[in-house]
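Incident log entry.

Two folding requests arrived from the same account within the same minute. Monitoring flagged them as a possible duplicate submission, but the sequences differ. Recording both here for audit purposes.

Request one:
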Amino acid sequence: MPQTDSAAEGARILTICNACRYCEGYCAVFPAMEHRRAFAGADLNFLANLCHNCAECYYACQYAPPHAFAVNVPRVLAEIRAQSYRQYAWSNGRYTAGVFALGAVLAFVFARSAGPRFYDVIPHAFMVAVFGTISGFVLAALAIGAIRSAKEFGVRWDTKALARAAADVLTLEYLRSGGAGCTYPTERHSGARRWFHHCTFYGFLLCFASTTVAALYHYGLGRLAPYPYTSLPVLLGTFGGVGLLVGPAGLYWLKRRRDPATADANQNSMDLTFLSLLFATSLTGLLLLVLRASSGMAPMLLIHLALVAALFATLPYGKFVHGIYRSLALLRYALEQRGGR
């Protein structure tokens, strides 16, 4: 559906919902919608990113297909949400991300040398150069997207609203449905999606913490990798890696079973790519831990680092950004609830 058609359809459907208001207790979208009389541009993007696609409103709606009104809030907001990702993205960086990802993969493949330690296979300075360049680009691209969305949503600093939004993000409040779980992948309530999201989110944070601690070990204490199995970087990375196996695998399993009526099929490739990269990066990281004292260490290290580079280089242009934009939308919603519209 072209962008103008999605926006027009979204405005039509939300106008009907605003007159009905049967679903106002389901999630944050409907109370936020009630603050508005017309729906276009910034308001549509805000509501679309506020939507968690739980689909409870779809199954409760008396005007859903096959009714002539054909109200389908989850699908139309998913379409608008995907368009907002492209709108906020640093467009000039898309090709750069691809070049970085491909270049990093090739660099790690051809940089191999012999030796029993990680830095014998890939020199530390080379790793720092590659990942430093990628990280700088990724942080800039993510910051540009965040600033653009925050400006459009009308986000401003408010300590209490920020605390409320942070709590909603960290607990995935709007996948709870009052404790019963959201209606995903089918119309039956289930907490599976929320818990698989938790595994993915906190697994990612643990892996990031592992990398940070390892950097402190290296630069602050002069301790070189690989570290003992009971060391903090290894423990954090192991638990995080398990989370990044369970979470993405579970989310993929749910996506395979979800009701196609509530989904935007055009996002399938984006979702699958992100989940696959997370899973593959975690799997190779754990295999590297197992194989690090064997002859399989060198090829596994190269594969793992290439996957990490590809994952990070594509973060600003994949499903990862939904966490940033949804967090900002939740902050805007918290501001409105505090009377800050």
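Request two (distinct sequence, not a duplicate):
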Amino acid sequence: MEAHGKPYRIEYYVTPEGESLVDEFFEGINETHQGKILRWFGYLKEQGPNLPRPYADVLEGKIRELRIAISHHQYRFLYFFHGKTIVITHGFLKKTDKVPQTEIERAKRYMADWIHCWSHKQGGDE
């Protein structure tokens, strides 16, 4: 079931140095967990902002989290929406009750960079 008729697309944030932090995080995860995480990315793509709690939630401003529990691992992927694009900034293993503010701030920086680069690709129009 697609949210709002038209499907969303997922894009991984890439640093100015050309690194995909999501891909780098995936390198340290076993293949079984990777497959389950990718399945959750598919649900996010289908549902967009309608993916309910406890699977997804707004953290701060436009920054959201995808919550994936596999075995005893609490994976978190931070993302934001830009139109019909879901930009996943990075992932991490959650080890505390709350998402660390440093991770939220990191996602905000990546979002600002992505939007800046996107607007330049569009000729300055956002």
